[in-house]
Amino acid sequence: MEHGILLSGADNIDFMIHGVFKYSFFGHEVWITTTHVCVLIVMLIIIGFAIVANRCMAKAREVPEGFQNVVELIVEKLDAMVDTPMGKAAPKFYNYIGTIFIFILVSNISGLLGLRPPTADYGVTLPLGVLTFILIHYNQFKYQKPKEIWEGMCSPLPPWLPIWLPINLISEIAVPISLSLRLFANVLSGTVMMALIYGLLGVIATAWPAALHVYFDLFSGAIQTYVFCMLTMTYIANARGDA
């Protein structure tokens, strides 16, 4: 492939997911796709960075310099992002929010490496949305009484008149779908646009598309990462109430 895993060549526009190889698993044919490969590469990048950061912080100096500055800046900014919407519960969610933020961001900007962003596959974004959905309702049932949950599901009318219950149930079920679809659709649209540019313009698209990569991969990727994490924190904070 001329442009890495993302595109197949100048004469063939390609932004689809393809099988790399297949194997038999208990009599079933299972495919390893480009998404699996790209997720593995993203994970290796993150793990490699984490190992280097861990070794650096093991020898941390009181006055940080060099790579230690980078690591501490990342941690401080991620913690500060969690502090505002989560309040006093923020320390419990530093690790989770920080992890999904880094994974989604690196996945979104992996197009700069010639990869097809893993988040352009709904099979990647849906589990992230479902995990958030589970955390929301785990905290809701842990920190709210059944009476409070019922009143919330019946609002804005009194709990003895549950006319709005079906609509509120649909809105609750829609949370993981809306979260995952928003991230998936925005990243996929950028992937499709860049594939069309490279596929239609061929050798002409050699340097100037870098400006589009800055928007679709860096700017849009960072915005979508922030939106996903901010909505996750807002939903969880609302489920916890004043806990």
From TrEMBL:
InterPro entries, per the entry:
ATP_syn_F0_a_bact/chloroplast, ATP_synth_F0_asu, ATP_synth_F0_asu_AS, F0_ATP_A_sf
Localisation per UniProt entry: Cell membrane; Membrane
What Gene3D superfamilies does this protein map onto? ATP synthase, F0 complex, subunit A
The processes (GO biological process) annotated in the record are:
proton motive force-driven plasma membrane ATP synthesis
Spell out where the chain crosses the membrane: 30-52, 93-113, 119-138, 183-208, 214-237
Listed under GO cellular component are: plasma membrane; proton-transporting ATP synthase complex
User: What keywords tag this UniProt record?
Assistant: ATP synthesis, Cell membrane, CF(0), Hydrogen ion transport, Ion transport, Membrane, Transmembrane, Transmembrane helix, Transport
Write one Gene Ontology MF term: proton-transporting ATP synthase activity, rotational mechanism
Kindly report the protein's main subcellular placement as a broad class. membrane
Membrane topology category: Multi-pass membrane protein
- Family matches, as Pfam families: ATP-synt_A (PF00119)
What's this chain's function? Key component of the proton channel; it plays a direct role in the translocation of protons across the membrane.
What the record says about family reads: Belongs to the ATPase A chain family.
The record's annotation in NCBIfam families points to:
ATP_synt_6_or_A (TIGR01131)
- What name appears for this protein in its UniProt entry? ATP synthase subunit a
Q: What is the lineage of its organism?
A: Bacteria, Bacillati, Bacillota, Clostridia, Lachnospirales
